[in-house]
Amino acid sequence: MSIENTQKAYDKWSEQYDTNVNKTRDLEAMALRQILADQSFDSILEIGCGTGKNSQWLITRTKKLIGADLSAEMLAKAKEKLSGREATFIQADITQDWNFTSDKFDLITFSLVLEHIENLDFIFREVSQKLSGSGKVYLGELHPFKQYSGSKARFETEEGQTIVPCYIHNVSDFTESASKYGLKIEEVREFFDEDDRTKVPRILALVFGKG
Q1: Helix (H/G/I), strand (E/B), else coil: 145
Q2: Residues with Cβ within 8 Å of residue 85, at least 6 apart in sequence
Q3: Distances, alpha carbon 5 to alpha carbons 58, 81, 101, 169, 179, in Å
Q4: Residue 199 lies in a domain
Q5: pLDDT digits over 47-72, tens only?
Q6: Which residue among 39, 47, 56, 153 sits deepest, i.e. has the most Cβ atoms within 10 Å of its Cβ?
Q7: Is the separation of the CB atoms in 174 and 110 below 8 Å?
Q8: Range of the structural domain that residue 43 is part of
Q9: What's in the keyword line of the UniProt record (predicted)?
């Protein structure tokens, strides 16, 4: 699976990403807001900012927001939404060295990103280098239980269905990879459709801190 295919898919998806029915997008946005409610940060790095769906809320919780995304078309939407705000948006491939910023951050967020990344160790290594001493990491991902049942990032166009390349990561994959780089799990939460806990959870949310 190539990162170029993921980029092309999200460039195409940007045309309808904010308007199509998407339970995963909406529930992850709710998860982020619930988990980070009543917290503020001097600086936030938002990985996979997309069209700015979470950026609009994160900017109210920080003095400085940098959003990074692989898709130029997604970033264009985010820039429109936050025009005039203290936010910077950068096109970046996070599977390469994170030289797109030299800063350290109090919070680094990932929203529906890491299912598209094969090598978690590289990501957590880069995170550990960009995180401040008391910084936190928030991950909101499609739950692996959903992936086991065949759920994937996908969308429809007039040309047919597009499925975005993805990988399955178990909960332990996240925690073990993070621990290699001094990040300790602080919170694990699962979010369900209609809050029905008798069904498979849709979103896995994790918070890590520097140990």
Answers
A1: helix
A2: 59, 65
A3: 28, 26, 25, 20, 30
A4: no
A5: 999 999 999 999 999 999 999 999 99
A6: 47
A7: no
A8: 3-192
A9: Methyltransferase, Transferase
